[in-house]
Amino acid sequence: MLSDIEIAQAATLAPIAAVAGKLGLSADDLHAHGHYMAKLTQATVNRLHAQPARAKLILVTAINPTPAGEGKTTTTIGLTDALNQAGYAALACLREPSLGPVFGMKGGATGGGYAQVVPMENINLHFTGDFHAITAANNLLAALIDNHIYHGNALAFDQVSWRRCMDMNDRALRRLTLENHTHTGFDITVASEVMAIFCLATDLADLTRRLGRIQIAVSTHGQPIYASDLQAEGAMTALLKEAFQPNLVQTLGGSPALLHGGPFANIAHGCNSLVATQTAMRLADYVVTEAGFGADLGAEKFLDIKCRQSGLRPDVAVIVATVRALKYHGGVEVADLNAENLSALASGVANLEKHITNLQSHFGLPVVVALNHFTADTAAEVALVQAAVEALGVRLHVCRHWAEGGAGALALAHTVAMQAQQAAAVKLLYADDLPLVDKLTTIAQAMYGASQVTLSALAQTQLSQMGEASRGLAVCVAKTQYSLSCDAKLRNVPKQHVLHVRELRLSRGAGFVVAICGDIMTMPGLPKQPASARIGVDADGRITGLS
């Protein structure tokens, strides 16, 4: 059996101009990065945004992830290919991979098998340099803060809250003491406010305004100090100007795909850039986009943050699950997942049912389930999941796109396309004017099934210091992706658990407050056996071991 990278390297890719041609774009609309990758020029993006959106928006999400894997990105790509094969004009909208997971636990993030975006190695490693630009803009602001303090501190900086970032897992950088005896630390780039702003800004002018609104410190007089007080926003935008143009690539099935931005969903809001989504909505009849991790994180943030700020509303959601992952939620350990276990599966299917109910009841969003097929799945196991899902009035399709590409998801594509044509009254979970703690409580109780929310002494102090600044802002919950709770060890659908908020961070430019819960880290560490140990380069310069 070929590995993901071997499948990708064996593929014959179309020139990127030909891919653009499927969208009605010409070579003049592109800034090429080699033969198979390009950015849409800013003039092209501006021209398209002046046109009305025409696409139906399909949101792909999942159950809580497990070590067994679910295949959300693979399903997004397979569904896009299937829609195009079935005669629908579809375009995928995805996030760019972060180097942290590539070299850490997860590996690459370009799909798998015969449902991948390519060129796989380029996309997973550096791509068009967007993340490096975001890192540079973030750290320019940090340098300007230190420089201002060094040259006299005319703005009377007291509590500096701005942190540095880098796109790599390095736990040693979580907490640092600088030469001037101030305390700071690094976040991973995909958890930074600059990344969030990059992905939520509507255009370059909005990007500049949002960057200027970043609160970097509080003065000795108790007044907030902004990036605009250092006149930083113009230079930061200059660093981000090229990166802000969406990236165009293709799938193995020949479908166009826009990959742009990459905030983590367990820490940040987990959606590709709004600019890319809005552009895609004017280039295709169906746009398939992905929200990171399980629906309790990615889908909730897609709706309550990205949709709240943009006015976008998805027409249908696809929830991805696997028999293996549901058995894991039912208590089976990874080594035993290939053995049929109907009792564990019957228990674990509750996790899928919770996510279905959440999206239907709390957001009014129609749902279709994609059961990503593994060869060890038995007919009895598939039938059990099918019956449980259909008992909720929801369609389920067994999908084989990993092995068959788009052909393995044609039935899913037809159902999703038909459902997207039906009117849906999609709503948000909480009102803008609800107090911050009430928003948190609403998310915790409705989405996670928590009994209550508690705030640490630090979080209570931070909430008090924010005062009116938090009014009207959304909440971005940072918690483990592996559980509906903030305890990664609690599988399936835990009951009567407490969401413990350890810290609150104000992200004025992004338009939300980050609630850091449990033991989640904004700078992850590498596992004992990182994926980097498998990666190398052969004598012909081809990358090996990337997954």
UniProtKB/TrEMBL annotation:
Enzyme class, first EC level, given as a word: ligase
Gene: fhs
Pathway(s) the chain acts in: One-carbon metabolism; tetrahydrofolate interconversion
InterPro entries, sorted: Formate_THF_ligase, Formate_THF_ligase_CS, P-loop_NTPase
Binding site for ATP: 66-73
Catalysed conversion reaction: (6S)-5,6,7,8-tetrahydrofolate + formate + ATP = (6R)-10-formyltetrahydrofolate + ADP + phosphate
UniProt KW Ligase keyword: yes
The keyword Nucleotide-binding belongs to this UniProt entry's keyword annotation: yes
Gene3D superfamilies (UniProt xref): Domain 2, N(10)-formyltetrahydrofolate synthetase (3.30.1510.10), Formyltetrahydrofolate synthetase, domain 3 (3.10.410.10), P-loop containing nucleotide triphosphate hydrolases (3.40.50.300)
HAMAP family, per database record: FTHFS (MF_01543)
GO MF term list: ATP binding; formate-tetrahydrofolate ligase activity
Protein name: Formate--tetrahydrofolate ligase
Any single GO BP term: tetrahydrofolate interconversion
Keywords carried by this UniProt record: ATP-binding, Ligase, Nucleotide-binding, One-carbon metabolism
CDD domains: FTHFS
Entry's EC annotation: 6.3.4.3
Family: Belongs to the formate--tetrahydrofolate ligase family.
